[in-house]
Design a protein that fits this description.
Blueprint (H helix, E strand, L loop, with lengths): L28 H8 L5 E6 L21 H12 L8 E4 L7 H12 L6 E5 L2 H5 L4 H18 L4 E5 L15 H15 L4 E4 L1 H8 L18 H15 L1
Parallel strand pairs: 1-2, 1-3, 3-4, 4-5
């Protein structure tokens, strides 16, 4: 797909009418305090193929070699809140083709020795195509968070809702993506100041009113291209800092 798409630099024209993610001041207090103090932070990522950077140009070794979105997130932390001890520790244990219950099963093994300050939980595409109920997904995210809190009681969380699949891709468009996002928002509220929602699903829904799906995909089915991977990073960074 990268070789079939144009790379264009353009100036923003007109006002933005879409959703604007906001960082609630009361969220992620311990993580933000470490950033303000100039301390090194450890950020964990657990998710599916999108969180592995599937179809990002750097991952497939194609121009313009943009990093996967988790790397963009930690790069942003290093650029905006440089730490005296060194760069952000990026711990990505994501795997292609998996769902959020896999995240529950592997969380302790993946992060038991890592003690992350922040865990970004980003499943959803396969959960929705697999027709996982919203309550099941919500409980899987909760269980992952509980395991991480057992590892490090000071860990905080960002729950990331997924982008949308190609509407004409058989088996992928189930309508559950929006339900999952609503329940993740509910979970973030229930967990108080230690959890925040990065509402990528809602953002992608608006973007699809302005751009074709083919202009935002890396495989024409369910993976973002560089442009949409950057949207992931922007939404998460806006919520995070």
């Amino acid at each position: 797909m990268h070789r079939l798409q144009y790379a264009v630099s353009y100036k923003h024209g007109g006002s933005w009418l879409g959703p604007v993610p906001r960082a609630a001041e009361e969220k992620l207090p311990k993580f933000r305090a470490k950033l303000r103090a100039g301390k090194q932070v450890r950020v964990a990522f657990t998710g599916d193929s999108i969180t592995t950077g599937a179809n990002s140009s750097a991952v497939v070794n194609a121009p313009p070699y943009l990093p996967m979105w988790p790397d963009m997130v930690t790069d942003f932390i290093d650029d905006s809140c440089p730490a005296k001890e060194g760069k952000t520790v990026n711990i990505n244990r994501s795997r292609g083709g998996v769902c959020s219950d896999w995240g529950v099963e592997t969380a302790r093994e993946s992060f038991g020795k890592e003690s992350p300050d922040l865990c970004v939980i980003a499943y959803g595409m396969n959960d929705a195509s697999g027709r996982y109920t919203s309550l099941f997904v919500k409980e899987n995210y909760r269980k992952i968070a509980e395991i991480l809190l057992d590892i490090n009681p000071d860990c905080e969380f960002i729950f990331v809702s997924t982008t949308l699949p190609n509407p004409i891709a058989a088996g992928f468009t189930t309508g559950l993506h929006f339900e999952h996002e609503a329940l993740l928002a509910e979970l973030a509220g229930e967990m108080g100041d230690i959890a925040a929602l990065a509402p990528v699903t809602n953002m992608h829904r608006y973007l699809l009113t302005r751009k074709r799906f083919a202009d935002m995909t890396g495989n024409n089915i369910n993976h973002p291209n560089d442009w949409l991977a950057r949207v992931y990073a922007q939404v998460i960074c806006t919520v995070m800092i």
